[in-house]
Amino acid sequence: MQVCRYENAHPTYTRWRNRLSILLSGLVLVLGGSPAISIAESSCVGSTCYYVDARDGRDNNSGTSTAPWQTIDRVNRAMSALNAGDQVLFRRGRDWGSAHVLQAKNISGNANSPITFGAYGEGARPRVQGIRIKNANHITIRDFEQPGSQGGPCTSVRDSGYIILQNLHVHDCSNNGLSFGSGTHHGVMIDNRVWDIPANDALSIHDSSTGTVGDHHWIVDNVVTGYIAEQPIDVATGSDNERGSHDHKVVGNRVRGGGNGCIVLGHGTSMGWLVGNFAGECTRTETAFSTAVSGQHGARSGSHFYNVGNVTFSNLMPSLQIAGQAPGVPLVFSHHNTYVHSGRGRRPVVRGSQRTDFTMHHNILWPTGSQTHVQLRSADDVTAMNDNWYVEEANAGCSILGKTLSEWQASSTHDSRSSCGSIPGLSNPPAADISNVDVWNTAGFKAHFIPDSSWSGCGTGIGAFDCSGKQHIEFEPFTDFSSDNGGYGWAGPAIVRERYPLDGNQTAPPVAETPPVAETPPAATPPVAETPLAATPPVAETPPAATPPAAETPPAATPPVAETPIDAASSLVAHYSFDNLSGSTVPDENAGLHNGSLHGPVATTGRIGTALRFDGVDDFVEVGSFDVFEGALTLAAWIKADDFGIHDARIISKSTGVGEQDHNWMLSTINKSGSKLRFRLKTNGITTTLFGNT
């Protein structure tokens, strides 16, 4: 499910790389002319964009791009006048200091048109230290840097719903990085990077003294690193004796450096998923409580948790710790994970510290330097264990509850199909890579956890990765919660559903695509007077009922564009026919201005001349970094796919990351109510996404 992530955080590269196994017979980039895909520059149609510039703005300006406001105080005074779809954009490269906090309170967008606070222009992210959201609905905060806070989290959300925190760079906050607190429901943290939090957690969904957190949250594809005083991710609602909220999904994150574990999902929480996370180097002292991917649960019925496709390594304490207070509480399903316990001490890889209904299957467990693979209070603590692979070192055997595997099999009903032995291809990453979270998503790093094809366990589905390198990313429903989207819970907004579609989201109508943030001001934005704007009635303290999500509808069909000859002399930027490959060099037929290099694909016969075959795993061609300065762009390619069912397959992209706003341009297919073309283009600093009709 994770597609085309890039190793470098700063340089911008142009590549074609995909998860489809395809033949690529030619690729052309053209400026101007008659593009095969029509690009309409974004504008604030039906809404208003307001602009803020800390250096060149003035608070008595009208708030347009040519006459921006200056201060956060001016933005706060305008909050009550914001309507659904409005956007408040802060100039990149500017710093608003620590004197004032952005107060997004008593405002509401809707499911189709959220109110967005973001960035415009070129350069570094705008720096805004504190953001507070309260009594608000359908709000998106994105693209800021938050370098510290004057008390409290860098961004806190209270008594609000349908809030998206996206692509924020957050560090040195005085108490938590990003926080969803009491009364918050339907929240998303996605594509954020958080580091060096000296107190409490990096990403927090946590009750407070004023109340409990609501239901339905996603924490998706975030990166947490550096010094984190407590947990990089902490989802803790309710208590050991009180029911908390339900439906919390922690998916695709990379976390390291937690002083008290990596990821905690628990207390009185029910209905949670931990899927496809990487967690390493958590807990700095051997005596501290730590769980790399953990569930802590209260003494009540109805707690259900899935741990699937996770990878842990180099942690000082257990890779998985599950705590409960009574038999039958909770239900924990741990399968298709790879737990490499490489810390010091005599700690098990998986530990159930108190009685639980615990099911564990198809996992790889490797306690390097330790002989204990699984530690339980008794065999009664586990409902079922089977089809696991316990990795032994130096022919030392495998230990479950102090027994060898054969003794454990003979004395219990568990692990009859499990094995003890080595796994070819499995290895510990080097220390330099473990400490650099930016390489964790590269093919080279993941290869340490991918068994060699010679392994006898290939084809059995054991571990987080199969032998072909595919990671197990899946969501299983909880039948006890069948009334909540068939047991899958909230499917999330479009940006989440694009990456992680739930098998059960057909029972809930999808929300229409969030309109892209536009930088270009509308043609005739009326001036905003410096006097305070007329106040709209404040939103009630209790969050209003959610607007029913609208079904996604594709854009209106456009007539097909007839093929026209390329005017190479005037409009051609780059042309790759693949007919004249030389070693690893891919020549640019346009005077060799942008030659590329092969990284895996092999030459074969194509529809016209030579083609390249990509393996659908990690093959790509890199053509360096170059810019397009004209007002129109065409990306055209001949491809033949083995399978169009892949959810997100990139054909060519110029990007610094995987988020929408990280892309300069991109052409891909996407499995979205059937396979469609998807196109992205950044204009005036804002990326727009278009989908084909079919």
Task: Describe the structure concisely for a colleague.
The chain has 694 residues and is mainly beta. Helices cover 5% and strands 34% of the residues.
Could you characterize the architecture of this molecule?
The longest helix is centred in the N-terminal third of the chain and has 7 residues, at 72-78. With 694 residues, the chain is mainly beta. The protein has a 13-stranded parallel β-sheet, with no helix packed on it. A hairpin with a 4-residue loop joins strand 43 and strand 44. Helices cover 5% and strands 34% of the residues. It is globular.
Quantity of strands, as a count:
50
Q: Distance between the terminal alpha carbons, to the nearest Å?
A: 22 Å
Mean pLDDT: 76
Strand order of the largest sheet: 3-4-6-8-11-14-17-20-23-26-29-32-35
Write the layout of secondary structure elements.
Layout: E1 13-17, E2 22-31, E3 49-52, H1 72-78, E4 87-91, E5 101-105, E6 115-120, E7 130-134, E8 137-142, E9 145-147, E10 155-158, E11 161-166, E12 169-171, E13 178-180, E14 185-190, E15 193-197, E16 203-206, E17 217-220, E18 223-228, E19 233-237, E20 246-251, E21 254-256, E22 263-267, E23 270-275, E24 278-280, E25 293-297, E26 304-308, E27 311-313, E28 320-323, E29 331-335, E30 338-341, E31 350-352, E32 357-361, E33 364-367, E34 372-376, E35 384-386, E36 389-391, E37 399-400, E38 403-404, H2 405-411, E39 419-421, H3 431-434, H4 443-446, H5 494-499, H6 568-571, E40 572-576, E41 585-586, E42 596-599, E43 602-605, E44 610-613, E45 620-622, E46 633-641, E47 648-655, E48 663-671, E49 675-683, E50 686-691
Parallel strand pairs: 3-4, 4-6, 5-7, 6-8, 7-10, 8-11, 9-12, 10-13, 11-14, 12-15, 13-16, 14-17, 15-18, 16-19, 17-20, 18-21, 19-22, 20-23, 21-24, 22-25, 23-26, 24-27, 25-28, 26-29, 27-30, 28-31, 29-32, 30-33, 31-34, 32-35, 33-36, 34-37, 36-39
Antiparallel strand pairs: 1-45, 1-47, 2-40, 2-44, 2-46, 37-38, 41-42, 42-45, 43-44, 47-48, 48-49, 49-50
